[in-house]
Amino acid sequence: MRQAKTKHHLWLLSRRNHAEVTQGLSGLVYSLHIESSIERISSKLSRLPCDLLLINLPLKEVTKEMFVEFRECLGHKKIPIIVISSPEDFSLFVHVVNRYADDYIVSPVRAVELSARIEKILKTKKISARSLHSLTHLPNRLWTRDMIEDIIRRNILFATAWIDINGLETYNELFGYLQGDDVLRGLARIIKNTFAKCDRTKSSFCGHLGSDNFVVIDDVNRMDMICQNILREFEIFKTSLYSQKDLEHQYVISKDRKGELTLGPLMSLSIAIVTNEKRQIYHFGQINMIARQMHKFLLTRSGSHMIKDRRMDFLGSSMNSRRHHSIPIS
Fold first, then answer.
1. Do 158 and 271 lie in a common domain?
2. How many Cβ atoms are within 10 Å of 255's Cβ, its own excluded?
3. Which domain holds residue 296?
4. Which end of the chain is more exposed for a tag (fewer CB within 10 A), N or C?
5. Domain with 220 in it: what CATH number?
6. DSSP 8-state code for residue 72
């Protein structure tokens, strides 16, 4: 049986006739999105996927600042870029294209050449897709670590939210791992939809570290709002995962390793917010350790909660000095 071609999502930045570009895409299965500014494309990528960006502008308009602005958004770093431009004064600008783009084509564009260039880059990108979690298609642990290390090097204020699902193991034992996978996909969808509803910043990023552990990166001033929305949406989502009886009792009946019946809580979320507002953050491992400490505290509480680290030094004070917010379960 012949395998169906993958549908690619291509974005075209163009303020001139782009008929020759679309002709070069005729051999591909694609969805083409056309915009006239890099700002409009960046704002829409929080809701729509992008496999490749085509820039079809006069070369004098293809600036270093354009690439830097696009690449500064964490989720855009691995999107390949092809520049299509006219030959005039090419030598004056080719150093910019060579440094910041993945490939370039001098017009007039030959359809066969453009199609071949795109296919080659997308094939390479398919290999890099191993950086995505196979279940949720969010950036995996390695990619997320690289993004966090990158934003630390920028020396700007940021916040990370480490999200764990409590009770997923019990849910898997009762309903099976396939339904447990649906829970993970559902939470990933909630996180992505939360970003889609608010203006994405250059620091916006979400990843799946593995198992039931997720990470969100965003602006310090917006993180509380983002996490509260994730908690609220997960509580709504949870009502579709249990029977009405389980929801009324607020527990499930399962068997322990000895085969004895036990009562277990319904799934909940624990969110630990770590920022560099009041302390210096040096590396990914430091944030991970702080978040793990906070999650241990959250496990002593029932229901879904978020907590924000407010300690001013690395060793810090007790957990009681941190402010936390919770969403009651109805």
1. yes
2. 11
3. 141-327
4. N
5. 3.30.70.270
6. H
